[in-house]
Structures are given as C-alpha cells and as structure tokens.
Amino acid sequence: FARGTGVEQSWEQAVENYRLAVSGGDEDASWKLGDCYNRGLGVERNDVSAFNCYRRSALAGSFIGMRKMAIALLDGRGVRQDRETGLKLLRRAAEGGDDNARFLLEQKSE
Fold this sequence. Notes:
The protein is an all-alpha fold. It contains 6 helices and no strands. The N and C termini lie far apart (about 40 Å).
C-alpha cells in the first residue's frame, strides 16, 4: 500500500499494515512505521512516536533502525539530544553493513 504496487496507494493502509507487522515482531516494519510518523504519512507527524519506533527496531537488531534512531538522537528529534549515544549507534550500524550509516558517520565525525 505504501508504494501502490498492484493496489491503490494508501499511506493510511500502509500504517495499519506496519502496525500489524510490528505486533508480529517485524523489526523492519517498526522503522518503516517510524518513517510514517517522521514524515506525517498516513498519521499525524509525531517525532516522539517516530523515535519510539526507531528505538524498537534498533533494539531488535535492525541496522537501519539503529541509523534512524542515531539521527534522531544527534538532532534531538523526539528525544533529548545525545551526540555520544547517537554516534555509538551510528558506528554500530555502519559496522553492521549499513552504507548510509557509514556515510553519515564520516560526515558527523568531521
């Protein structure tokens, strides 16, 4: 539903599907739901809810979730700014193979 492949695109339906997947333990669905909250797609924009979704995904071991949680910590979006923890998470995601985290780590460390 998020992309509208084979069905009419609906962010509201995508959010519902992500919520169901999160309740089933899908760590990728958690960061995707966080993106919906972060951007206000299918739900009201909410930085705290976005952070909580990213955190859930990161704690489940998702390197993408770690990167997104790190960005929120570095920027202070939905949570008190914490550069040290943000950089640690970003480093862990980069070491796990997240190329976007590696790129961001190089920029944030300069």
